[in-house]
Write a structure and sequence with these properties.
Helix content: 25-40%
Radius of gyration: 19 Å
Distance between the termini: 47 Å
Shape: elongated
Strand content: 5-15%
Number of helices: 7
Strand order of the largest sheet: 1-4-2-3
Number of strands: 4
Structural class: alpha+beta
């Protein structure tokens, strides 16, 4: 990754960037207009006592209230608002996995992706919004139900926070304006057990307490998804709700 200087962050394109932009949300908290909604096929399977199938794009296409758009330029961390501004926080290394999680765990929250290639304009808008999210301390201080750490290794949050901390070490004006720490704050955490996400699991149900405290920034190879015990837990979906 090419090195970045203060001008890469402290410029009008970044400081005046919008989230959501005209291309959709780039980071959270992303509102869920259909909390608790279960698509028709999955509801029918649950009522019949059979294993509900995974939610497809067709299942996700027509929620009761229109979903919001997620830009293809995002930080690959699930940032659906679980309530009160606390975001989901599960980390992914690619967009298809993130989209699959969104359909199965937060159906009706996000519109299905289009097949249109990402434009130069969308890339610029998304990168600027993500830079501002880091620069403003939004990423560092955000509330998550599952602690995302640095996000995916080498992803936008990891790269931008690392760059800002490097800039702050040598640029006194940048440090005085924005601070010196941009990776997420240290916190007592719970280590989430690995499990496969399938139809509406509670991703926070199986945890084991650990006593270590993660440092800020954490070691480069530590990207384990974790949960923060201080955060409120998501409400279980109500399968009695009408479609």
């Amino acid at each position: 990754m090419p090195s970045m200087n203060s001008a890469a962050f402290n410029n009008p394109a970044v400081t005046n960037s919008a989230n959501p932009s005209t291309f959709g949300w780039h980071h959270g908290p992303i509102p869920n207009n259909n909390p608790g909604w279960i698509p028709v096929r999955q509801r029918a399977a649950a009522a019949a006592g059979t294993q509900p199938p995974a939610v497809t794009t067709a299942d996700n296409a027509n929620p009761p209230i229109p979903a919001v758009n997620l830009s293809s330029i995002n930080n690959e961390v699930c940032q659906i608002d679980m309530g009160g501004g606390t975001m989901c926080g599960v980390v992914f290394g690619n967009q298809p996995s993130l989209r699959r999680h969104l359909r199965n765990v937060h159906p009706g929250a996000i519109t299905n992706p289009t097949r249109t290639n990402t434009s130069v304009q969308e890339t610029a808008a998304g990168q600027s919004a993500l830079k501002l999210f880091v620069l403003s301390g939004g990423w560092r201080n955000a509330d998550f139900a599952v602690e995302p750490g640095r996000g995916p290794p080498g992803g936008y949050m990891d790269r931008y926070a690392t760059a800002c901390e490097a800039i702050a070490r040598t640029d006194a004006a940048f440090r005085a304006t924005y601070g010196s720490e941009f990776h997420r704050v240290k916190r007592v955490i719970q280590k989430a057990k690995k499990r496969r996400f399938r139809f509406y699991p509670d991703p926070f149900a199986e945890t084991e307490n650990i006593t270590t405290v993660s440092e800020s920034p954490p070691a480069q190879d530590e990207h384990t998804q974790t949960t923060n015990p201080a955060q409120p837990q998501p409400t279980q979906l109500d399968r009695s709700q009408p479609v």
